[in-house]
Amino acid sequence: MYRLPSRYGAYAISLAGLVVCLLGLALLHAWPWGLGVLAFGLLAALGTHDLFQHHHTVSRNYPILAHLRYWLESIGPEIRQYFIQSDTEERPFSREQRSLVYRRAKNTIDKQPFGSQRDMQAPGYEWMNHSLAPTRIEDHDFRIVIGADRPRPYSASVFNISAMSFGALSANAIRALNEGAREGGFYHDTGEGGLSPHHRQGGDLVWELGSGYFGCRDAEGRFDPERFAETAGLEAVKMIEIKLSQGAKPGHGGVLPGPKVTPEIAATRGVPEGLDVISPAAHSAFSTPREMIAFIQRLRELSGGKPVGIKLAIGHPWEWFAMVKAMREEGDHPDFVVVDGGQGGTGAAPLEFVNRLGMPLTEALLLVHNTLVGAGLRDKVRVGAAGKVISAFDIARTMALGADWCNAARGYMFALGCIQAQSCHTDRCPSGVATQNPQRGGRLDVPLKAERVRHFHANTLKALAEMLAAAGLNHPGELGPEHVIRRISRHEVRNLATLFDFVPPNALLSGGAAQHPVFRDYWELADPDSFAPPASVWQLRQSKLV
Ligand SMILES: Cc1cc2nc3c(=O)[nH]c(=O)nc-3n(C[C@H](O)[C@H](O)[C@H](O)COP(=O)(O)O)c2cc1C
């Protein structure tokens, strides 16, 4: 006798239930049977649809039941976040990291009772050495001057809001960030989506120009100097940042789909409403390192002497070396370089880019810092860094490795109330931070969140001041790699000064950095007139059949 496979059980029960309820309704005319008809009818319809559709084999084999699996799978991240993962293991940011930001943003207790939850014997564990001669730091508003030799230098906080566009973030999120920056005296990077009215709440701005030149482009999408000068001249714009690449998706352009190009976004970006907006992968205003330096000079002039810098994720080392050689040969340089680590965030990017492209922050920062030191430019070019910098220790470690200041994107998103739902790309952000849906974004209370942004910044720097005082220092600029120690194995620890190579000042100019393979292999070969690979790399490529 044929036995119906048990996987069809739910469908069979739904059909049987529908028949029974239909009979009950016909014979007894009581409304509960009507409810049964509705419920079993819907399930039976779903099961029939599952059986006859062709997109999902699992649904054809398991009508109705497959949906239970899909649903459980869809709420898996939440289940893991709420019930399974420990305080320190969740990614990209652990519960411990997020709750530190929430507590600092809400200005509530940020102390840890009883002791550390860290496994201090685990390889990779890092700590900072304290001193027996601690200092006393009264003011935690640590600042550095960028573009000191330019007509309009900028005094920046050491912890600022990294680039996130209006478009990626909601209007209210941008407003709250900018108000928080104004109140706390730190800067807010516009992101590459242009400078919108929401950015103009009185906070200091770094205006970012991506390859789409939003807010300063002509009808063909090319750089428009007049429109640039107009916006760059605004008092709130303190510096200009040319975005070359982003750690989470280096070398990947972007498309903002037409339906998302609202009248407000169209006006901010200087593009037609309702049409797809393309951000090309590369800039059209320059195509060689030397041309890039000329473009930087031009922007500086057009902005009335404000500091101009670049933001990049490190890829091929010879391309970065070529830029530094162009700086030397042209006798001019960007006022700052912001290094974005491969672990950096994004609203949306392909998984391979997020996971596998872009050098992680430690290595990228070391390369940038060492090259500038070796080329005799480090005293002229300030270095910023971003990539999962969220706590005072993260800032201290990053500055110890060569950064002059740090930026955070997702840290400030948490301060706004982001819960790491990771739905930035769906327009259904539950906290109203990363959405263009006016209902969702509109519920974000601007004055309250601005205050949290300010508190997060101030309390993080207060914690940094306490760490520095314990280490016997007065300013984070005094930190060096010798202050941070890493466990290599259960029986070996090294301080970062001995773990990593540091190039002596001017060593690249005299051939003295040759012991490090990356400098030995590529520094001499890098060409300030081209981003193309050196001949030795071409030769390797030609050894393959293509
Ligand atoms: C929602 C979102 C939007 C972003 N948009 C930009 C952008 O427009 N331009 C840019 O240079 N970086 C952008 N980034 C990258 C951040 O500025 C930052 O460099 C990176 O996330 C590393 O910082 P974090 O680890 O503190 O998030 C974005 C990041 C996020 C999370």
TrEMBL record:
Residue ranges annotated for the Glutamate synthase domain, each copy included: 156-474
InterPro entries hit by this protein: Aldolase_TIM, GltB, Glu_synthdom, YerD
E.C. numbers: 1.4.1.13
Key words, A-Z: Membrane, Oxidoreductase, Transmembrane, Transmembrane helix
Stretches that traverse the bilayer: 9-27
GO MF entries: glutamate synthase (NADPH) activity
One GO term (biological process): glutamate biosynthetic process
Family statement: Belongs to the glutamate synthase family.
Protein name: Glutamate synthase [NADPH] large chain
The organism of origin for this protein: Halomonas elongata
Gene name in the database record: gltA_2
